[in-house]
Amino acid sequence: MKRIAILGSTGSIGTQTLDIITTYPEKFEAVLLTANHNWELLVDQAKRFRPKSVVIADESHYKKVKESLAGLEIEVKSGANAIAEAVKSPEIDMVVTAMVGYSGLLPTINAIEAGKTIALANKETLVVAGELITGLARDHQVSILPVDSEHSAIFQCLQGEDRNSMRRILLTASGGPFRKLSIKELEKVTVTEALNHPNWDMGAKVTIDSASMMNKGFEMIEARWLFDCSPENIKILVHPQSIVHSMVEFHDGSIKAQIGIPDMHIPIQYALSYPERLRNDNYILNWDKMRKLTFEEPDYNKFPLLSLAFEAIKQGGNMPCILNAANEVAVKAFLNGEISFTEMPRLAEFAMERVPFIAHPDLQDLIETNELGVETTRKRILITTH
Fold first, then answer.
1. What's the CA gap between 297 and 313, in Å, rounded?
2. Are 157 and 256 a contacting pair, CB within 8 Å?
3. HEC states along 277-307?
4. Rounded to 10 degrees, what is the CA torsion of 329, 310, 174, 292?
5. For strand 2-7 and strand 255-259, is the pairing parallel, antiparallel, or unpaired?
6. d(CA 255, CA 66)
7. How far is residue 339's CA from residue 375's CA, in Å, rounded to a whole number?
C-alpha cells in the first residue's frame, strides 16, 4: 500500500489521481488532500476517501471545511504554511505535486527534505528552482517521477538506456487552439477561445499557457533539469494529434517514442505505480480512427513566450523565476479581461528586463525574485490599462 498526498486534489491532475486510487484501492491510499479555494469539492473528496488530513489554502474557508467534516477522524488545517508542513508527515510515502504555479515550490522542497518520493505535476517548481530542487533530490536520495505526459514519455523512452547515449529530446506540442492564426488574429482572441483546447482537458492556467505555448517553454526548462539535458539539445515539434507524447533520439540515430491517447490518467498512473505497469483497459488507442501523424516547426514569432523561455534558461540564475512570476500575473490578467492575449509576452519581456538578475540565487533570493516579478508585472498592467 502506497500512501499518497495530493497537493491540489480538486484540480484536473488531482481529480484524475483520485480516479486511479479508486481503481486500485489495494495499492494506493490518499492520506492528505489539499485545495486552494474549492472547499466544497475538497469536503466531498474527504468524505469519500477519508484521508488522515486535509488542508484548505484559502483560510477564509477553514470554518466551512471544519464544520463539514465534523465527526470524522480527519484533521483539518488551513493556509499555505500548513500545506508545506503537512507533507512532512511520516504517514506519507509519495507526494503528488499538482498545485498550480509558484505555490508548489515550498511544499515540494519540504517533501524532498522529508525523504518523500515526488510525483511532479507542478512544472513551475523546476522552472523557478530547477538547480536547487534537483540538488536537494540528489542530497536526500529522493526520486522525482514526472507526471506531465511529455516528461513521462521521455522518462519511459529512457528506461533501460544509458543516459549518455541520448543525443537530444524531441518535445512534442499540440500547438494549442491558435496554431493556424496570424499574429493579427491573435490580438483579438477571447478568453473563451483560449480555454477551448482541441485535445486536452486541463485547468484554466495550464490551458492558457498551452494556447500561448508558454507551457511548452516551461516544459523545455523542466526537461533540462529532469534529464540533465542542455536546452540546445531539446527540440520542440508541433504535433497537433497529441498521440506521440515525446521522443528521444540516440547517438546511433535511433528514435524512441511513447505513444498513447491524450489522457493524463496514463502518465499519472505510471508515476504512481513505477516501476510497475498497472493494467488499465479504459485508455486504449484506436488505430482505426488514426489516419496520420504530422509534425511541424513551432512559430517563434507568433508565440514569443517560447523564445523567452529559451532566453531565460540560457541566462540561468533567477531569470526563469522572473519569467514564471510575470507569466502567472499576465495569465490572471488575461483571464480577468484586463489585457489582450498578445500582451502577455510583452509583460514577461518587460519583467525580465526590469527585475535584477542574480546568477546564483538561493531559496531566499528566489522568493524575493518571485515577489518582485509579481509586483513589477502588476504595476506595468496598471500603467498600460489606465
1. 20
2. yes
3. CCCCCCCCCCHHHCCCCCCECCCCCCCHHHH
4. 180
5. unpaired
6. 53
7. 16
Decide: pTM greater than 0.90: yes
* Structural contact between residues 96 and 125, judged by C-beta atoms closer than 8 angstroms: no
Contact 153, 246 (CB under 8 A): yes
Q: What is the pLDDT along the chain (386 residues), one digit of tens a residue?
A: 999 999 999 999 999 999 999 999 999 999 999 999 999 999 999 999 999 999 999 999 999 999 999 999 999 999 999 999 999 999 999 999 999 888 899 999 999 999 999 999 988 899 999 999 999 999 999 999 999 999 999 999 999 999 999 999 999 999 888 999 999 999 999 999 988 866 666 678 888 999 999 999 999 999 999 999 999 999 999 999 999 999 999 999 999 999 999 999 999 999 999 999 999 888 899 888 788 999 999 999 999 999 999 999 999 999 999 999 999 999 999 999 999 999 999 999 999 999 999 999 999 999 999 999 999 999 999 988 76
Cell numbers that stand for 379 in this block:
504595476
